[in-house]
Amino acid sequence: MDLTPRTSSDNAPLAPRTKAKKKWRYVAMLVVVVSAGGFIVSQFLTSAIDFYCNVDEIGSRVGCEEDRRLRVQGNVVEGSISESANKTTFSLVFNNKTIDVIYDGDPGGIFQECIPVVAHGRLQGDTFEANRIEVRHSNEYEAANADRISESEVAPCSQQVG
Amino acid sequence: MNHAGYVFGTYAITFALIVSAVVYTLKEGRELSRNVADKDKPWT
Amino acid sequence: MTTTELPAIKGVGTQATRLYGVLALIALGWVLVGGLFFTPEDVVQGDAVRIMYVHVPTAWTAYLAFIVTGVASACWLLGKKHSMGFDRVAGASAEVGVAFMALTLISGSLWGRITWGTFWVWDPRLTTTAFLFVTYLGYLAVRGLGGSPHQRARRSSVVALLAVLEIPLVHFSVVLWRSLHQEASVLSPDGDIKMDGIMLFTLLFGVFGFSVLFAWLVSHRQRIMAMHDAQRASALEVAMADRLQEASS
Q: Of A147, C47, C87, C156, which sits most exposed with the smallest number of CB within 10 A?
């Protein structure tokens, strides 16, 4: 009895060649997936595990040495933001330790006073020169209304999160 | 509304994908149902 | 004038799925209208908070889908009968989960652009979520590699049981490591929900709506898979009968 696969049949929904083609498509997909997985794991190990150093850890924690490129997290000090000639300067505070930051441009996002941010850059003397700012936000959600605006005027840093 | 492009864009992408998935599923289900015997459709 | 009635085509819907459909339509209708127009702005994020009403429910539904895939795979693997129904539920649930995870990544990226100031960062939550997404793409690729339905079920159930272990890692990544991403809003580690009433209502209604939509999609997709399997089996039977006839003639 001949058991070799047929190349086409009226009854078969998928001819063997089509089936094989489909299978190779999935094999290719698997190769892409494994490569993407490898890339993501490498990003996790090199970047994600220690995403940032807190302001008070600069120079005192492994991986937060002063002479290397850092990602520094802290709260923007109230009243410290000033903008001039495409530069934004502000101070970051964490655990009572403060650092001055200078950033080329407008930080964007929901950047404002009293909000935690992560600044990417290098320490130059006593100032942290940042070329990227990422704003963190808390898991607290509060409706904006007139009453609350007056409350926030009484305690401007009430939205602070660590 | 501030950042309207991002907000409306998010909703448009989400709901467009949902509608496409629902329409595709209904269409595929009806087409297959024509070619499959009732004994293989225990839910009917 | 006479009209000829065509026999009604029995699709993949049932009374239960029609109920799921109506509930999903109501809930998602509110998310669309309420989320965009009737909920208030957030005091810090402004209108960007509206993205939360689709981002959080899609993420929740993706987790749910992957857990269902894991449970159904375990049922197939451990069950004495190795019922193919479990394998089809696992496959259908993974398909839906991957779609919702893609939506989570897209909506999160757009939300991040407004609030963080960037579309993407390699922080613990985003990195583990991307890995989870890629893992389930791999699961779907493994399902498509060919072989009999039993072979498909066996290899994919093993992958599903390994992949489901990633979910706690993704969820707790914001607690385990330092992340740019905020902690969970509803399932927060301290159990305290810090959200205004109508915001929380819309978010929970969204979670409900997307969950019911998930049930609708999985019910339909697993029936479609059952019909595909039946079609393949009957094609094989016909081919075997043809060969036997050829051999005997």
A: A147
User: Which residue is associated with the tokens 């696969």?
Assistant: A5
How many angstroms separate the CA atoms of C180 and C174, rounded? 8
User: What SS3 state is found at A137?
Assistant: coil
| C131-143 tens-digit pLDDT | 999 999 999 999 9
Contact A141 C188 (CB under 8 A): no
Please tell me which residue of chain C has the smallest CA distance to A139.
C185
Nearest to C225 by CA among C103, C135, C137, C94: C94
B contact test, residue of C10, C118, C225 with most B CBs within 10 A: C10
pLDDT digits (tens, 9 = 90+) for C90-136: 999 999 999 999 999 999 999 999 988 889 989 899 999 999 999 99
Host domain of residue C139 = 18-40+49-233
CB atoms A11 and C185 under 8 Å: no
The complex's ipTM works out to 0.92
State the pTM of this model.
Answer: 0.85
Chain-chain contact of A141 with C177 (C-beta, under 8 angstroms): no
